[in-house]
Design brief:
Number of helices: 4
Oligomer: single chain
Structural class: alpha+beta
Distance between the termini: 22 Å
CATH topology: Thiol Ester Dehydrase, Chain A
CATH superfamily: Hotdog Thioesterase
Strand order of the largest sheet: 1-2-4-5-6-3
């Protein structure tokens, strides 16, 4: 089981995050994620080289990473409420791929089975995007996303976002996401 497939409703070719690299929790949580850009992507079909990844896809990837960060933070809080170490969230999520092979993974499975559909139905609306494009991403490169939640006010979360290829920043700025009440 791919954990990102479990946490996000997006599927190829609209899934813009392939892997979570690191998560730091707390009051100002940060999530690092990646996506390799392949020359076989549907957006490059019949395109002439050089093959540049569209900036709107980078923004979408940062939005999906922001959603993942919100979900990780919710899971972190749920683990702490159960008396489990929230620092072990990444190991627990990796354990999910082995069908709940450790205590944290088993607790996460219970939380996800109980709360995920309700939680996903409340996440995902982009309220504001203020970013600056400062570079390009070419086919064959790995796009690295970094998202930090800087403010939480009711149903609104503000994120400082940055997308890089290696050490080169290709897009940075802020995004505001709104959780909406709804049905699954």
């Amino acid at each position: 089981m791919n954990i990102i497939d479990r946490l996000l409703p997006h599927r190829s070719p609209f899934l813009m995050v392939e892997s979570v690299v690191a998560y730091t929790g707390g009051d100002a949580p940060v999530l690092h994620a990646e996506r390799p850009i392949c020359s076989s992507e549907p957006v490059f079909l019949n395109a002439e080289p050089p093959l540049y990844w569209p900036s709107v896809y980078i923004i979408e990837g940062l939005g999906q990473t922001s959603n993942l960060l919100s979900l990780f933070w919710m899971l972190e809080r749920s683990l702490a409420a159960q008396g489990l170490d929230p620092e072990s969230i990444c190991d627990g999520l990796k354990g999910l791929e082995n069908h709940g092979s450790n205590t944290t993974a088993k607790a996460l499975l219970e939380i996800l089975d109980r709360d995920l559909e309700r939680t996903i139905s409340r996440i995902g609306l982009s309220a504001a995007v203020d970013v600056q494009v400062s570079g390009r991403v070419c086919a064959g490169e790995v796009l690295h996303y970094e998202v930090e939640r800087t403010h939480l006010l009711g149903e609104l979360s503000r994120f400082a976002v940055r997308a890089c290829v290696g050490e080169h920043v290709v897009l940075s700025g802020t995004m505001v996401g709104a959780r909406i009440k709804g049905t699954v």
